[in-house]
Amino acid sequence: MRSIRPLSTVNRGRGARRRTSPVLAAVALASALALTATACESGAPEAGGAAASSATSGDGKITIPDDIKDRLKEHGIDVDKWKDGAWKDWSKDDWLHEAEDYINPIIEGLWDPDRMREAEDPEKEVDDSDLDGDQGVTDPEPAPVDAKAVAPTYHDSVPEAGKVFFDSPEGQMVCSATVVQDPANPGKSNMVWTAGHCVHAGKSGGWYRNIAFVPSYNDKGLATAELKDATREEVAPYGVWWGDWAQTSDQWIEQGGTTGGDGASYDFAVIHVTPEEGGTGKSLEETVGSALPVDFKAPAATKIQSMTATGYPAAAPFDGETMYQCEDKPGRLSLNASDPTMYRIGCTMTGGSSGGGWVATGSDGKPALVSNTSIGPVTAGWLAGPRLGEVAKGVYDSVSEKFAGQ
Question: Who contacts 389 (Cβ-Cβ below 8 Å, separation ≥6)?
Fold first, then answer.
């Protein structure tokens, strides 16, 4: 059997790790330009309303609410040194793992075109032998479906899609993501859906840093050579949006890792974002002009005729600069008899496509996000994503309620 890997990406590969299992864990980032602190229930500061002070250091600016600065100090973190590189310290003692510990102060200008372009596919592999002896239902492996490049400008056909960038011990990483609706703020969502392994390293690590979302990355489909001289506006036409709150399932935090399929059925996350430089006051949804609904009661795989997965694959033969899609009828993949069965489709997208949204006709007969890319074999050919249920809905509702009315 082939090896399986999480489909994210690093500076030599762009990855992130994969999933967690059902309890939820929140990444709480307090306030407009501040930091993300994950939390289960309590322990994370309420967003909004906090007094803030600015610390300018080097060529960037970090704005952090005063109450968050106090919480950082409790972890022995000097916020004035953070921008100067203190965030690069990934020692076990300093890598915050627990839900309530995550921090993500905005560093203006950090994600410039060069840094985004250098975020590549991480070579993280998962041994496919994990599939042996499963008691759940697994359909025959699907035939590969060639990924098709989306015609630029991407925003015209897939305005909700984009990239998530973040830093890890291995370097700059990237995943794919989708703007989704916020039931507490209709028409004004600042919520982004991605994979759990795109925000947290799992049982052996902690929360990633400098998490940011770029909708319609490289919207005009510039070639890699052209991107070397591209402006930030060309690379990120709708701005850079930093995660001021994020949440995933506890399963990934407790079980996820660089190898194995543990927690894959719960490999999803929601990031609440804010514009890096304040912007015009418009929400992310208003800025890009669209947001997808999320269906937590999507039909079983056998009842779905077609699913479309979108992402920015970066591992060879792709370069991470172009948006691709695969469309296929889903089958079933069971990694563990005690966990929900996953969707699986034929698709040749590689690392970097992790977290990208899967769209199908939802339970109400309309297009909706029903899953996200989680894992695939090292040799490519197919992708698998979690079937969204009550745990995913709990993550989604928690983030929405946290920012209700804001």
Answer: 296, 340
